[in-house]
Amino acid sequence: MTEVVAALIWQQDRFLICQRPEGKTCPLLWEFVGGKVEAGETKEDALVRECKEELDIIVEVGDIFMEVVHEYPFDTIHLTLYNAVIREGIPKKIVHTNLNWITIKEIPKYEFCPADRDILEKLMRKE
Question: Is the four-CA dihedral 41, 95, 21, 64 of positive or negative sign?
C-alpha cells in the first residue's frame, strides 16, 4: 500500500483543485495537491514538500480532514487529506495542466480522481 498525502486549501468559500497532466496516471482528472510519502518522511513533511514542488507554495499543515483507502488497478493507496493554509507564495502550474479555486457547489462540474470521490461527497454533505 502506498501512503499518499494531499491538502485541502481554502480561500474564503473556495478550495484549490489541480488537474493532472497527460502522461501520468489518471490523466487530466482533477485532484487535491499532494503526493507520495517518501521513506523517512512524516506525512506532514511530505505534504509541505509536495506543495513546494508542485505549486511553489509553503503551507502550514493543519488537522486531518479525512482518510481514504482506494484500490486502483495499479496500486492501493492510503490517502490522508489535511486541512492546510498557504503561508507563502501564490500557487503556480509547475506539474499540473491547470489549477482552479472552486466552491462546493461546483464539484459536479469536474471529473476527479476516483480516490477523491468519498472526500468530495463529504464536502457536499457539509454544504
Answer: positive
Q: Give the list of residues 6+ apart from residue 75 with CB closer than 8 angstroms, or none.
A: 1, 2
Q: Could you give the number of structural domains in the chain?
A: 1
The C-alpha atoms of residue 65 and residue 43 are separated, in whole angstroms, by 14
Range of the domain at 100: 2-126
Q: Which residues pair with 59 in a beta bridge?
A: 86
The domain that holds 106 is classified in CATH as 3.90.79.10
The torsion of the CA quartet 28, 32, 38, 42, rounded to 10 degrees, works out to 180
Q: How do residues 6-33 score in pLDDT, each as one tens digit?
A: 999 999 999 999 999 998 889 999 999 9
Nearest to 28 by CA among 38, 16, 20: 20
DSSP 38-70: PTT--HHHHHHHHHHHHHS-EEEEEEEEEEEEE
Number of other residues whose CB lies within 10 A of the CB of residue 71:
11
